[in-house]
Amino acid sequence: MDRTAWWIVLFSRILINLNIRITYPFLPAIARGLDISFEEAGILVAVRHCVGLSGFVFGWLSVRRGYFRGMQTGLIFLVAGCATVAWASHYATALAGFVLLGLAKAAYDPNIQALVSSRTSYRVRARAFGILESSWAGSWLVGVPLSGLLMARFGWRSPFFLLTLLAMVALVANRRFKNAEATCSPPTASLRHPQEPSPPRSPSLARCFMILGASFFMVFANENLVMVYGAWMERSFRLELESLGLYSTLVGVAELAGELAVLALVDRWGKRRAYLGGLMLTMCAYAALPHAARSLFTALGAVTVMFLLFEFTIVTSFTYVSEWVPSRRGQWMAFNFCFLVAGRLAGALTAPRLWDLHHDLHLLAFVSLGAQLTSLVLLGMAGRGPKDR
């Protein structure tokens, strides 16, 4: 893809990701605005994740209709979802909006990941995914602080009004991909490195499920802690909305650093080795987080390190997973997306309840450590990927 195409993709991904990220630090504010409990607000997030399980449908759509159709469908859901949440005055209306936002990500993400994978050699694919996933950091680095400022001055709905307008712009801009490659086949010979062998046979079903299980537990472990990030900072340090949004800039910087690390290092180190290392280092960050509440400085430092390591790990996982079933890449990436969503759903359901019981991170960190260890074991059992032998 040329430079203009990359900017369009990054702009669209930032908008889609911001609708996911905005709920984490500002979930208490959204709950107050809708006059609901924090646990009920957590259900909104859980339902959004739940409808993301429909990602396999959009994987099937990519096979039948091409990547462009799935991407446009996602952006249509994004426009509708932002508008619905912005005008919501009742819990049921907000719930409908969150459903549409979940469908937006389920449709757009697997299709753009498959499109990038199909056009990039595996030898340099970490670089492409490092660029693609920088939109995740961008949504936090730019969008969350701006959302905090808007909420503090104009109310919790204001970011969603702005996002509705920007999503319309993205919908028009993405028509550039109308003639994009619509197959899920492996890269053609012209795209392969001269020394890169032909794609090997796909791994067994059992090994594929181990890889998907590793994705599930990796994301659950992180979601279980990130869901209460805003509530923990508010309770421990009495941060206001505006300050919470500005402090979140550190998270965006950390994630951008993680994505740049993927771009610079993973192709050299090897995808599987980097994935395993990322899981182990993130476990250390989860273990240290509950002990960081002694001061605002240590808390921000611990959260920043946690986000950096997790971002490095999950982007590396995308790169590694993308070549496991190259003959059905669109569907495979959609299934992986579904397992990631299922992990987020489980975390969104678990974390608020554990937090309401104890208002303490020790139990949540213990649960996350167990989940992360399970992910590490599954990845080890799955063995090397088709092109990591």
Report on this model:
The protein is mostly helical. The chain has a single domain, classed as MFS general substrate transporter like domains (Growth Hormone, Chain: A), CATH 1.20.1250.20. It is built from 16 helices and no strands. Helix 4 packs across helix 5. The longest helix has 30 residues. About 4% of the residues have low confidence.
- Beta fraction: under 5%
Tally of individual domains: 1
The rough form would be described as: globular
Gap from first CA to last CA: 29 Å
Q: Averaged pLDDT, please?
A: 83
CATH topology (fold) name: Growth Hormone, Chain: A
Radius of gyration: 20 Å
CATH architecture title: Up-down Bundle
Order of helices and strands: HHHHHHHHHHHHHHHH
The number of strands is 0
